[in-house]
Design a protein that fits this description.
CATH class of the largest domain: Alpha Beta
CATH superfamily of the largest domain: ATPase, nucleotide binding domain
Number of strands: 14
Order of helices and strands: EEEHEEEHEHEEEEEHHHHEHEH
Strand content: 15-25%
Shape: globular
Helix content: 25-40%
Distance between the termini: 15 Å
Radius of gyration: 20 Å
Structural class: alpha/beta
CATH architecture of the largest domain: 2-Layer Sandwich
Number of helices: 9
């Protein structure tokens, strides 16, 4: 049995994985985000109450482990940042540890049991609080040792002049420290920032903007047209590079199927490969993809 953890800023979700088809959620406990000994104690508690001793532990975290140093950066759990996290957890818990970024775990879940089934290359896209992603090739993460592969939302690539009529956008500052990132203008908060820039004094949240676009409201329609154009070019380049058979979208904005369908149309018009089927689709593994992805990671490492 693999004991799986989806580590969030407020809660640690737990599951026992016996096979890819047999993953059993075991509830959640609060995350001691500021206290590493308390964090380890919470994991020990989960191990002690498991239905049987686990063979190994698998983690999904909202952070990144640098492949060259093993050092973790986990913004919402400060006590993990700066640690050689896999090595520390293995030493403190006495079991083998498998760990991946939450977007990577989402991509694994989609490739194995979601929209990516049957495809050799799957790109898992996050469009929600942030813009991120993960890449799975033949059932395995492309960055098995950690790192930043799939993080297409960061880098100064956001188009500045676009739309009909044309508009010039500022290079919005991003939380990663750069300017001009897609994350800063195409995440849910980014969409709101874009809308406020295009329509001063007409601020709205992302849900209202998407609903207005669906209803044909002119300001929302303008915002979504620019938002789609901002995303379509970079995603087409990602597709040309990866040759993904499917791009599965998770995150809050994926809850608007018409929006994802519109993005798919615009991306397919820009890629070299000509497809007569959707490429960009809503995720299908909607329930606990972090736990499912962690389970798949742990099961694959056990079998290796």
């Amino acid at each position: 049995m693999i004991l799986c953890f989806d580590i969030g800023g407020t809660a640690i979700k737990i599951a026992e994985a016996f096979s890819q088809e047999d993953i059993r959620p075991q509830g959640r406990v609060p995350t001691p985000a500021q206290d590493y000994p308390a964090f380890v104690a919470a994991l020990h508690g989960a191990i002690a109450t498991a239905s049987q001793p686990p063979e190994r532990l698998a983690f999904s975290i909202a952070g990144v482990v640098a492949p060259d140093t093993g050092l973790a950066t986990v913004a919402n759990i400060p006590c993990l940042t700066g640690r050689r996290l896999v090595a520390d957890l293995e030493a403190d818990l006495g079991l083998p540890v498998d760990l991946a970024n939450d977007a990577d775990c989402f991509a694994l879940a989609e490739a194995a049991v979601g929209a990516g089934r049957g495809h050799e290359v799957v790109f898992g896209i996050i469009l929600g609080t942030g813009v991120g992603g993960g890449v799975v090739v033949r059932g395995q993460l492309i960055n098995a040792g950690g790192g930043f592969a799939g993080e297409w939302g960061h880098g100064p690539v956001a188009q500045r002049i676009l739309g009909d009529p044309e508009v010039t956008l500022p290079a919005f500052a991003c939380g990663c420290g750069q300017i001009g990132c897609l994350d800063a203008v195409c995440s849910a908060r980014g969409m709101e920032r874009l809308h406020a820039h295009l329509h001063p004094g007409r601020e709205a949240d992302s849900l209202t903007i998407v609903e207005g676009w669906s209803a044909g409201e002119p300001r929302a329609t303008r915002t979504i047209a620019i938002w789609l154009e901002l995303l379509a070019g970079p995603l087409a380049m990602v597709e040309n590079m990866l040759g993904a058979g499917i791009m599965a979208v998770g995150g809050g904005l994926s809850n608007a199927p018409a929006l994802i369908a519109a993005l798919d149309v615009q991306v397919r018009a820009r890629i070299l490969r000509k497809l007569d089927r959707p490429l960009i689709v809503p995720a299908q593994c909607a329930i606990e993809p972090g736990l499912v992805g962690a389970a798949i990671l742990g099961l694959s490492r056990r079998a290796a």
